[in-house]
Amino acid sequence: DAGVTQSPTHLIKTRGQQVTLRCSPISGHKSVSWYQQVLGQGPQFIFQYYEKEERGRGNFPDRFSARQFPNYSSELNVNALLLGDSALYLCASSPLRGLLDSPLHFGNGTRLTVT
Amino acid sequence: KNEVEQSPQNLTAQEGEFITINCSYSVGISALHWLQQHPGGGIVSLFMLSSGKKKHGRLIATINIQEKHSSLHITASHPRDSAVYICAALNFGNEKLTFGTGTRLTIIP
Fold this sequence. Notes:
The complex is a heterodimer.
Chain A: E1 5-7, E2 10-13, E3 19-24, E4 31-37, E5 44-50, E6 53-57, E7 64-68, E8 74-78, E9 87-94, E10 105-106, E11 110-114
Parallel strand pairs in A: 2-11
Antiparallel strand pairs in A: 1-3, 3-8, 4-5, 4-9, 5-6, 7-8, 9-10, 9-11
Chain B: E1 4-7, E2 10-14, E3 19-25, E4 29-37, E5 43-49, E6 52-56, E7 59-64, E8 69-74, E9 83-91, E10 97-99, E11 103-108
Parallel strand pairs in B: 2-11
Antiparallel strand pairs in B: 1-3, 3-8, 4-5, 4-9, 6-7, 7-8, 9-10, 9-11
């Protein structure tokens, strides 16, 4: 079975632009979560979606938004990009809503560079 | 002060050495994850534990809920174990993951 796939793998954008990142979960997984990892730091939670509804949100500004589609794939959108948005964006999927009983499966991430 | 702290930040050891990476957390948790991140970014889940001890091959993870502390041990370390190891606490109640900043492990042949 294919793992979690993210696209694109790398992206360069200019300040003020908008970006859309995509994530396809493992087949059968209904929960997708997004994380931002700035160089040299641990990941930070952005969003969790389960059954197409937002189930959790981290401390990120409204410029960050996401959605989950009927096939459980997900998009993360970031508007009005800032230099500080440069990071590795990770997507993880799990079969259940709760993370207590199911391990996380991560994609390889999208590396976003804002110039 | 971060809610999840790891030590050491960097660790270099010779092949074959016994490795210990520590994780302390200040929040109430439901479970704790240990993750491995290789250069390029991909993350692999190693363990999820809420009590006691788990073992998989040369890797052992322990957690002490009362002391809010977890350790990851690697026996007979090998250069292929070189990676960043991250602990992540699953917050009790809201089930949000809070990550440590990671420990960069380098095993020298």
